[in-house]
Fold Urea ABC transporter ATP-binding protein UrtD.
Amino acid sequence: MSAVVKSPGFHSAEMQSMLYLNGVTKSFDGFKAINNLSLDIAPGELRAIIGPNGAGKSTMMDIITGKTRPDSGQVRFRDSIDLTQYDEADIANLGIGRKFQKPTVVETLSVWQNVELALAGTRSVLHALFHTLSSEQTDKVNDVIKLVGLKEKAGDIAGSLSHGQKQWLEIGMLIVQGPELLLVDEPAAGMTDHETMETAALLKEINKDHTVVVVEHDMDFIKALDSKVTVLHEGSVLAEGRLEVVSANPRVIEVYLGR
Ligand SMILES: Nc1ncnc2c1ncn2[C@@H]1O[C@H](COP(=O)(O)OP(=O)(O)OP(=O)(O)O)[C@@H](O)[C@H]1O
């Protein structure tokens, strides 16, 4: 796997936060799914988010990506961009890529065509498939396919891939669009132990050029990421720090790890 596709402005000296949430609250029918949540992700960081079911992890991702509007609080990208003012499509275009749990690759197209389609973005499938890529674009597609470990499978139809390989393809389809911040929702769900470890290695590789926030329940995966961990509980941060530290926290053991 090789490093690929540099994100612009990644090492901007002035930027304090790639993602900054402050005092964010969101209620559904009076129930606070997100409760005064604050989170600060530095440029270039790899951050793992853990927490029990219903802690608010998905709602937090929905708020960052514009799918859900918070009732109050600040949500900022690259210090100055107020994400609450934008819709989902705008936020994707600003450079925030989200990978959902369920892969959405086109099963009847090849690995290569899926990445090509993702590069074409919002243009039509037909346009993407019959439009000739520049040599730079072709290199980009090939680099991404190599990065996600599917070089040998580039010509295979996506429907023939294993569950884990489909997840990697999906990650590649996001990377080719050049996001600065990548949000990844439970990538290891349904994977074999080997695929889980490969996925942790892939995200660490991707983190060389991108800020990455990953939500996951699999503690072996979290351990392999070897990153700062945020524990969410009842819509706010219960603990934050190295896994060794948060996993020794009695409250974290009580509400999550000890279950
Ligand atoms: N659209 C909605 N309407 C009503 N309640 C909601 C809605 N979305 C989320 N909730 C509630 O908000 C709380 C937080 O849910 P959320 O899905 O964000 O948790 P989670 O940490 O992602 O959980 P899991 O680990 O199970 O995916 C839950 O109690 C959930 O039922």
